[in-house]
């Protein structure tokens, strides 16, 4: 099945730095979701986006629904150690399944 | 509201056996999706059930099957297990309506096939 292109694949950053990651697709989506997954656990929903151009924040997290509807971006400001984990994007079109990105592994160095 | 629950959390089976995994969605959610997660393949969609009917299906062999009950609880069955079926199996639920698709995951069932 289709997998979304997510980049970067991994990031090693200092505590306090900002983080940016993005997801691109060859298909147009109506919904973009961003998840964080800790080892051995299920992904936790962070942000949901429903309209092209939409910018939504959740605390230090900000995500945007790309204007072409084929991409999305997630930014984390002032990273802290508990931000460590794998971040996934997911795209959805009405009547179809969710497609997931390949994940971005984030390591925060104290 | 209680979150998505999955049972069992861990399972060890041998090749050739079959296994049934269970998922209870968030109260009020009518859609349940199943995913297989492995380090090499990432999150792969298995199938989605909505109001007891399979609504979408991924690209997995017929050994993988599922069903949904009238209370929205869902089960996934894998027959004739192979070593490659070792994975984290995740269930996710959503309201299932056309306008909003926030999907919430359970903790997963870690299946090891020996």
What does this 3D model show about the protein?
The complex is a heterodimer of chains A (110) and B (114). Chain A is mainly beta and 110 residues long. Helices cover 0% and strands 54% of the residues of chain A. Chain A has strands at 5-7, 10-14, 19-24, 31-37, 44-49, 55-58, 61-65, 71-76, 85-92, 98-100, 104-109. In chain A, strands 2, 4, 5, 9, 10 and 11 form a six-stranded mixed sheet that branches. Chain A has a five-stranded antiparallel sheet with strand order 1-3-8-7-6, with no helix packed on it. The mean pLDDT of chain A is 93. Chain B is mainly β and 114 residues long. Chain B contains no helices and eleven strands. Chain B has strands at 5-7, 10-13, 19-24, 31-38, 42-50, 53-57, 64-68, 74-78, 87-94, 104-105, 109-113. In chain B, strands 2, 4, 5, 6, 9, 10 and 11 form a seven-stranded mixed sheet that branches. In chain B, strand 4 and strand 5 (42-50) form a beta hairpin. The radius of gyration of chain B is 13 Å and the shape is globular. The model of chain B has no long low-confidence stretch (mean pLDDT 93). The chains are: A mainly beta (110), B mainly beta (114). At the A-B interface, strand 4, strand 5, strand 9 and strand 10 of A face strand 5, strand 9 and strand 10 of B.
